[in-house]
Amino acid sequence: MTVNAARALAGARTCFVGIGLPSTAANLARRTCRPDLVLIYESGALGAKPTRLPLSIGDGELAETADAVVSVPEMFNYWLQAGRIDVGFLGAAQLDRFANINTTVVNRGPDRPEGRLPGAGGAPEIAASCGEVLIVLRHSTRNFVDRLDFVTSVGHGAGRGDRERLGLRGRGPVAVITDLGILRPDPESAELLLTDLHAGVTVEQVRAATGWPLKTADQVSVTAPPTPAELAALRALRAA
After folding, report:
1. Residue 191, helix vs strand vs coil
2. Is the pTM of this model over 0.90?
3. Alpha-carbon gap, residue 57 to 19, rounded angstroms
4. Residue numbers annotated as active site
5. 113 pLDDT exceeds 90?
6. Torsions phi, psi of 207, nearest 5?
7. For residue 108, what pLDDT band results from cuts at 50, 70 and 90?
8. Pick from 190, 1, 219: which is nearest to 96 by CA?
9. Cβ count within 10 A of residue 232
């Protein structure tokens, strides 16, 4: 999952990085397929080059290794909302068939209080304004749901054309990379389709882990296995 997420950044110039799995993938891309990738964190770090995985967007390692550090208002008003960032890389707690994201609250069932999540952070603006969005998360019916308990960040809304109707700048999610495979939006409907499987995974496994009747592309490919160099870079990154 992490290696394929890193590979998805091979053509990117600038990446607005979320903490957690997206940060691991983006930092791996800098060490493998895209060494000149400019990493941007919402705390204000432009061109961060951390020597280890940052613990949060406020990790001092990001500021110490950045090309520049700007204020949060400048980061959002000038860099993000103006469309100056190629790719936004996000995680999720829940995801629906149109790649809308919930990171705010989940329904834990009758007679139980709502489960509070970390919240929106900068994700709604990242999803709205970056040129395109990549999403990485583990694949299960707990995460891939038919209906979100709360819409934190809009992916493709209710289908093709919703982003334009809402006035959102970017293309929205172009790929969802999981530990089972890769999903991409259908060109006509914007509903997520299974386009790639990781080696050893079946279509039936992915459908069983998805909370809606998952459709597949006409031709489902198998992702290339991680290379020894990619695995070595990932292990070194996690050990730092």
Report:
1. coil
2. yes
3. 7
4. 42
5. no
6. -60, -40
7. confident
8. 190
9. 13
